[in-house]
Amino acid sequence: MALYSYRKQSRRRLRKVIRTVSFVFILSGLGILLWVLSPIIFFELVYAPRFTGLLRPIPETIIEDTLASTLPIILPSERIDYTKARVWFPKATNISLPQTPTVYTLSIPKVDIFDASVTVGGDDLMKSLIHFAGPLPGQNGNPVILGHSTLLWFYNPRDYKSIFSKLPSLKIGDTIQARVDSITYTFKVYEMSIVYPDDLSVLRQQNDNSYITLVTCVPPGTYLKRLVVRGRLEKI
After folding, report:
1. Which residues make Cβ contacts (< 8 Å) with residue 209, sequence separation at least 6?
2. Does pLDDT of 119 surpass 60?
3. Radius of gyration of the chain (CA)
4. Which CATH superfamily is domain 41-233 in?
5. pTM metric for this prediction
6. Domain edges within the chain
7. Nearest one of 154, 164, 151, 175 to 214, comparing CA atoms
């Protein structure tokens, strides 16, 4: 009788341990899912509505689309490496770039970015921001600068893998500074919009003034859309 009781208690303890471990795994999974999705949902609820009415604003259904496709997009892709600038606008042709200098710096005080390196015609977004198209800042036209973003939990303004993650927090009137050949040019943000990845209007050149355009992926941690921040040169 004692042996039977011992086996029965052992089975009960085993079932209890299994239930406890299962519960812990479920909570861990939900925690990871919440940790990944919360900054994306926050972006859609807080930042995205500010851009409504601008260039091809993000649709109201984006939250549903994001929840349905976030995980495979967040996980590293073997097909498309978005740390390479050349894959951002594969359909773009006749890209015009300045010959010199090949590097200058960019500062955005609002998001604690100071003297970030910008490589003209570069490709590796893990090592610097990339001047993808247009003339140098300060010249008439529209220099287009690409920068990587990731989940806000990983944001570091000195890390090029996450440097543009807080661009959505910029507002009209905030400043962007570019230092080229020892001259600092200050631009004021006048337009912010969210566009689809195949929208080549981002590369549009306007020669009536000196502009600057910053581009990154949104929501942070995904490649679903592009945030476009445009600035106009202030008088020196």
Report:
1. 140, 232, 233
2. yes
3. 23
4. Sortase (2.40.260.10)
5. 0.74
6. 41-233
7. 164
Of how many residues is the chain composed? 236
Q: Measured between alpha carbons, how far is 80 from 123 in angstroms, rounded to an integer?
A: 14
Provide the CB-side half-sphere exposure for 86 (13 A, CA).
4
Whether 168 and 175 have beta carbons less than 8 Å apart is answered as no
Dihedral (CA of 97, 100, 105, 110) sign: negative
**Tokens, residue 205:** 């050149």
Q: What is the pLDDT of residues 94-115, one digit of tens each?
A: 788 888 889 999 999 999 999 9
Query: Which tens digits make up the pLDDT trace of 122-153?
Result: 999 999 999 999 999 999 999 999 999 988 87
Strand partners, 176: 187
What counts of helices (H) and strands (E) characterise the chain? 2, 8
Question: Over 90: is that where the pLDDT of 11 sits?
Answer: no
Expressed in percent and rounded to 5, the helix, strand and coil fractions of the chain are: 35, 25, 40
Question: Is residue 80 predicted with pLDDT exceeding 70?
Answer: yes
Q: Which amino acid is at 162?
A: S
Dump strand ranges (E) for 66-124.
103-108, 113-120
